[in-house]
Amino acid sequence: MSIKKKICLLGPFACGKSSIINRYVLNVFSDQYLTTIGTHISKKSFYLAHEEDSKKNIDLLIWDLEGGRERAVTPPSYLMGAYAAIIVFDCTRSYTLDLCLEYIELYKKFSKNDRIFIAANKIDVNHNDLLIENAQKKLETNDIFLTSAKLGNGIHELFSQVVSGI
Amino acid sequence: MNQPTLKEHALEKLRKIILEDDLNKIQVKLEKKLGERPSIEEIHDVIVNFFKDSIPEHKNEIINAFKDILPEIILESQVKNKQELIDSISTIFPQMLNKQIKEDSSVIVDALFPVIGAIIAKYIGESTKELTDKLNQRINDNFTFEGVKRKLKSKMTGVSESDLILGELYSENLEAIYLIHTETGLIINELVDDTFKAVDSDLFAGMLTAIKSFSEDTSKEIPRGLNSINYGEYTLYIENTSHFYLAFIILGSPNQEFKQDVRLLTKNILDNHANKIINYDGSQANLKDVLQKDLVPFHNKYKNENSKENVKEHDVSSKKSANPAKIFLFILCFTIIAVFVLKTIGYVQNKILTNKINNQTQFSQLYITIDNPWPWKIELDGLVQSKKINNELQNYITNQHPNSIIENKIKTLNIVK
Q: Where would a tag sit more exposed on chain A, N or C end, judged by fewer CB atoms within 10 A?
């Protein structure tokens, strides 16, 4: 018998949400951009070390949600019951950071928990410390994961942190 | 650089075929005439342009020249460049067929009829055989508990037995049951038939939940939510509640009895497990007893029992050994009938013997009872005046029924003189 958890990936369009999932689940990356319509669900199964040398079988059901261009467009029902959310913004487009706040509010309202993790993606293209500092101030958190789906940087650390509370 | 067109490619080929050897000769001759040797490309340009202009002018001559060898060219292409030939024709084949059907469909029909007729006849034949096998199986089960039950149901509902049998044959076959948490889309429990190749149940549940949410958000006027999806021969039947829903994958369509049973199943789950489901956190261990208590009996009732494999097994096994239930029922019926017959014979015998004894003067006034519990046994009871009369009576009865066992319990009065 396994423990199943629903994780939502949110964020503006073309921030690399699908790429992050592909990197984490399949360890692949493609330069080809295919916009996600609605939602796409992926599954990652693994064993988590538990107390007394036992292991827990964890199934993560990752909901890759369609990103909005100007505002958060996620249907509320997709967020309900989620264990945690990963909100992604694009380091190469600073305006995506502003949309993150909308997604945070949306998630908190409908999932009824505040287990939120922020990922600054495409760090390989633009590692801007000022942007990251700005993000920390705006989002009122120091825990921002610097990720690159292309190179695979920071992805496993991000998800390890997400599942650490299970 | 642009790729050469088909026409240019053909012209180049033609040039090579016709002028391969001559090209060098032309080069040499021109060198003599002009004093310089033109390059192959310059000659090529001149010749290509020449053919470009002359082919439209001499189209008929060229067609006449090629028409006799065109079939051979196609045949050669089949052998050497089969895939390219297929690729080039396949792009226009559907349009060709479409055009022919519009202009004169009878040609196509006549051409396909011998094949389609045979295919349809074969399919109908196999379906009829399968139906016959299933009907025979049902009819042979007439003396089973199910057969008797069906007869009673037919009497009570007024539906003919044949209709009931057909209804049983084509009832829904349940392939899988999923119990899914509505909010999260996570699987709580599942039962999937071994023969049904399902996709990953977690992904299935998640996507189905997303589809349900989408359709319910789109049509607010329909409060009950998505409850059925048909795909091919299968039906995905959904029973919704606030906190969970049940998804059934059925080969066929659900009938009223199935839907009623589903509602009952849903009620049982709600009654027994509502609190745990509301607080479901993804840990399946907390709700594993739902499977055994509620889902398994339901699945057993509706699982696929009418597969071809089952019919074949029945045909083979029926030759080797008879149905034990059928034998038991037969023996029981035979025993009841036999007992009834014997008791009747005993009763008739008793009546006849009693009449005979009453007609005998010496026995008519006696206080005796004669009982025939079985045709071969006569029991005498009562009170007579003397042993002599008792013995006379017993001898009389023995003469009437020499093969019967006589149990004489008649008491005699002891008259003391």
A: N
